[in-house]
Amino acid sequence: MKVLVVGKGGREHALVHGLWQSGAEVLATQPNPGMAEHARAVDVAPTDIAGLLALAQTEHVDLVVIGPEAPLVLGLADVLRARGIATFGPGQAAAQLEASKDFTKKFLNRHGIPTARHVTVTELAAAKAALRTFAEPPVIKADGLAAGKGVVVPETWAQAEAAVQAFLGDRTLGAAGATLVLEERLVGPEISALALCDGKTLLALDLARDHKRIFDGDRGDNTGGMGAVSPLPNVDAATRARIDREVLAPTLAGFLSDGLDFRGVIYAGVMLTADGPKVLEYNVRFGDPEAQVLIPRLGARLADLLLATATGQLAGRTLPADPPAAVTVVLAAAGYPATPRTGDAISGLAQAAARPDVLVFHAGTRAEGGRVVTAGGRVLAVTGLGATVADARARAYAAAADIHFAGQQLRTDIASSVV
Ligand code: AMP
Ligand code: GLY
After folding, report:
1. Who contacts 282 (Cβ-Cβ below 8 Å, separation ≥6)?
2. Cα of 280 to ligand 1 centre, how many Å?
3. Has residue 169 been placed in a domain?
4. pTM above 0.85, yes or no
5. Structural domains of the chain, count
6. Residue nearest to atom 19 of ligand 1 (CA)
7. What's the CA-to-centroid distance between 189 and ligand 2, angstroms?
8. What is the CATH number of the domain that holds 130?
9. What are the pLDDT digits (tens) for 178-218?
10. Dihedrals phi, psi of 351, to nearest 5 degrees
């Protein structure tokens, strides 16, 4: 099987590695040095829709796997499928579930999927008036994609008003903030519920948890994610069943009744509140760093599962149960998330990767004069696999300790709440 992977971060390295492990011949767009070990590099940007179509046709690939949201929102999957190319990733219409918070709230409410009460506003005066309809300061969400900067969870009314003023009044996020969703603030642990969907069948993956704040104890700035764990042994079977029944099943029913042909992975960000699971957001792709714990657990079955998803053949497929647990620890650059520094030399990569049951996924790295140097905010994701979360966690941290670069930041408490 010949597969083109679109994207070049840690998630895509996990995809490339799993596809290679499955015996596929892998092509990757402008791969980082880690990806390049198991894929042939093609110099086409992940958002160059015409270039990717031409490449998929000349290379006669059997499957295109789209990692990030940007090409999905641009409609890459529609363009490829229109030419008969099997594609893992939803089309532009379904990608609105990630690209527009207002679209998502309407979808959730239309299909009776539990979520926070909200108001959508487009005028500053109306927004300020709407704030007062909430008992406590609501969460302020820019409608459009804002690279993780579009959600403010205010502690005070003044902060809520300032956020509304910034997004809607001052247009600090440009068009992404021209529509706002104001939403009741919920409380509870957050989990990531991902499922493969082939257009008619869902296959739920084990639950995962991201760790979004930069510092231990969930303190400091929001990041793209500093580590992840799967499964979540502390989430009991009854809660898992509620997520399947109240979130994932009606999500699929919603795709069908809205005529959305969703072929890819649907990711529900869910808060486990006292009133049950509630959806905070959808993503229409694998999470990063959730991919770095979920994909290694699919092992050599990955290529078959992704192709079955793309071609509507998931029914009857099951998921491998081994290895039982995975933990990934992100090594981030100095200054991340505000102003990541690049160009720091990285040592210890081979030593870490040589450890059993460890995978070192590259995210923001590049080759320079025979060395690998930092080239982004999140530099590496070091995954440990094991029989239990505790085993996987110990392996991930032991391997992370082999790797050094100036200014490296890592959290020491990834997965500590679930061992
Ligand atoms: P989102 O992009 O919608 O997932 O929001 C980013 C983060 O903001 C989430 O991961 C939550 O930590 C937080 N958040 C979003 N919506 C709410 C809410 N209704 N109540 C509390 N926290 C929220
Ligand atoms: N881990 C969060 C995300 O991928 O959006």
Report:
1. 97, 98, 104, 251, 266, 267, 268, 269
2. 6
3. yes
4. yes
5. 2
6. 185
7. 16
8. 3.30.1490.20
9. 999 999 999 999 999 999 999 999 999 999 999 999 999 99
10. -60, -45
